[in-house]
Amino acid sequence: MSDPLDTEQEINRLHNEKMARRKAARDRMLATKTEERGLLIVHTGTGKGKSTAAFGMVLRCLGHGMRVGIVQFVKGVWGTGERVALEHFGDLVTCRAMGEGFTWDTQDRARDIAAARAAWEVAKAMIADPAYRLVLLDELNIVLRYDYLPLGEVVAALKTKPRDLHVVVTGRNAKPELIEAADLVTEMTLVKHPFRAGVKAQQGIEF
Question: I need a labelling partner for 203 at 20 to 30 A (CA). Which of 10, 15, 113, 181 fits?
């Protein structure tokens, strides 16, 4: 009968060998990744977490002392915890909440288009400003979905952004042209949401 200790030691030995091979393969792969540049990042999909993940990147950049610009294309008519928290970072972050709510709230297409255009002008100025290392265009996908901004103009501007600048775009239904232009695309998939069970949007979770 085999000694359980010997069996455990053999399992550990095989595991260590496997991890050593995996580390060697990963080290070889990482050695080929030498380019460093700003990325165009898109968070889309029906699941919750698109803006939440983007604000996580904002916090990470701020932790490194990088200056961040944020334009919120839809959110603006209600207060959010992230905006309050970001006030503590002073001049490192500029947050412009320029939306007036969702289009079903305003019920005024011309007003929505004007708000989107004003927000886009601010966004373009941030993208062109060399002081910023990351610019978050929160819910830009929403206004593109409703054709409130010319898609070609937006994609062209994002394609020609400064080389060292990261730009993050959030919102459902990202346009195929934007997905094609992006370096990194993450689709949040809805599996389960409390809203369907009658739970309203809650402070600290949704805003």
Answer: 113
Do the beta carbons of residue 66 and residue 93 sit within 8 Å?
no
Q: Is the dihedral of CA 4, 10, 13, 15 positive or negative?
A: negative
Q: Which residues, in sequence order, are CB contacts of 52 under 8 Å at separation 6+? A: none
Q: Could you read off the pLDDT of 114-165 as tens digits, one per residue?
A: 999 999 999 999 999 999 999 999 999 999 999 999 999 999 999 999 999 9
CATH number at residue 128: 3.40.50.300
Phi and psi, residue 47, nearest 5°:
-80, 155
Between 158 and 6, name the one with better pLDDT.
158
- Is residue 4 located within the same domain as residue 17? yes
Q: Which of 137, 156, 45, 57 is nearest to 97 (CA)?
A: 137
Please state, in angstroms and rounded to a whole number, the distance separating the CA atoms of residues 201 and 204: 9
Structure tokens at 78: 């209600």
Residue 28 CA to its chain's centroid (Å): 29
Tell me, yes or no, whether 206 lies in a domain.
Answer: no
Q: For residue 117, give the amino acid letter.
A: R
Q: pLDDT averaged over the chain?
A: 91
Distances (CA, A) of 27 to 33, 36, 95: 10, 18, 39
pTM of the complete model: 0.86
**Are 68 and 101 in the same domain?**
yes
Hey, how many other C-beta atoms are within 10 angstroms of the C-beta on 188? Answer: 17
Distance separating the N- and C-terminal Cα atoms of the chain:
61
